[in-house]
Write a structure and sequence with these properties.
By secondary structure, the chain is an alpha+beta fold. It is about 25% helix and about 20% strand. It is built from 8 helices and 14 strands. Helix 2 runs parallel beside helix 4 and helix 4 packs across helix 5. The longest helix is centred in the C-terminal third of the chain and has 18 residues.
Length: about 325
């Protein structure tokens, strides 16, 4: 059976949002694929990956999907979106503040979230003073994970690990129970399409963060910083929020030409990505087991443009913004 996905709304009583797999009729080889979104998602079959799955998410749930929604994939740096949400949730609960010192001298939680601390891509070197350059940094997010665990009572206290905090504040509330942390807060999540689709819904209609915090997460932090987007190129500016990359007018880019400048998201070196575009009010999730390379910079913009174009040919159910 090919599962269809429905993303349940977040109830007013605070209980978990759930992604429900609803069996559908198994399609026959002779069946025409008439839905433009389903046609667009079928592009993943030509990407040369052993396994690939994709979904388009709207405010009220999953609009279309292709591939196995329950197979676990390595998300790589897409993990940073959920790590950022965990950190931002901790600021809402008063466990830490965005301007608390963190990382290199003079840097703060805000700098680490926005890749503006000066820390290098890997390792301990500091390459620039805080707030001067956009230097994409995995260690910065690992430091954030350790800080959240410590402030939540872990690292020798009565609490647990960063994964414990992530699970109790992000994964479980969104019903992402098949997702696990295997390694670092910067890149360690593994999980299925169904779970990442639930988080895509959260990007479109945040429920876990205070409204002002959610707005800050997707706004450009430290505007005007020059930087290099690994695997893509140097940009002036390289716009970034407090976790998500902000597309702005970057060219070339891993999203599509039809994506709006306000599109936010992240991609991972495992051949994975998630973007949410407020202009069309949809999100696209793609998971593969083919590592990111030049193939992705051709394939991902094409599927992104096809999905944005296809949304114009069907009615997308809306949900009120918080």
């Amino acid at each position: 059976m090919v599962p269809c996905l429905r993303l349940d709304g977040h109830p007013a009583d605070g209980t978990s949002r759930r992604v429900t797999l609803v069996p559908a009729r198994t399609p026959l080889a002779s069946d025409p694929v008439s839905d433009p979104l389903e046609q667009a998602l079928a592009q993943v079959d030509g990407w040369g990956a052993e396994h690939a799955a994709a979904a388009v998410v709207g405010p009220s749930g999953v609009l279309a999907m292709h591939g196995d929604a329950t197979r676990s994939f390595r998300w790589a740096s897409v993990t940073k979106l959920l790590t950022a949400w965990t950190v931002l949730g901790a600021t809402d609960r008063g466990l830490l503040a965005l301007d608390d010192p963190a990382g290199p001298e003079g840097a703060t939680v805000r700098h680490l979230l926005a890749h503006a601390s000066g820390l290098s891509f890997e390792g301990a070197p500091v390459l620039a003073p805080p707030g001067r350059r956009r230097i994409y940094s995995n260690p910065g997010y690992d430091l954030l994970g350790a800080l959240v665990a410590q402030r939540s009572g872990g690292s020798g206290g009565s609490g647990g690990t960063f994964e414990d905090v992530l699970r109790s504040t992000v994964l479980d509330p969104l019903g992402m129970r098949a997702t696990t942390m295997v390694g670092r807060p910067s890149e360690g999540l593994h999980g299925p399409l169904a779970d990442l689709a639930a988080f895509a819904g959260e990007l479109l209609r945040p429920t876990l963060l205070e409204p002002a915090t959610a707005v800050a997460a997707t706004a450009v932090a430290f505007p005007g910083l020059v930087g290099v987007l690994p695997g893509v190129g140097r940009f002036d500016p390289l716009d970034w929020g407090l976790g998500p990359e902000v597309r702005s007018t970057k060219t070339p880019h891993w999203t599509g030409r039809r994506n709006s400048p306000g599109t936010v998201g992240h991609f991972g070196g495992a051949g994975t990505f998630l973007w949410a575009d407020p202009a069309v009010d949809i999100a696209l999730v793609c998971l593969t087991d083919r590592d990111f390379d030049t193939w992705a910079l051709d394939a991902w913009p094409r599927i992104s443009d096809a999905v944005v174009e296809a949304t114009g040919s069907r009615s997308v159910p809306s949900a009120p913004r918080r």
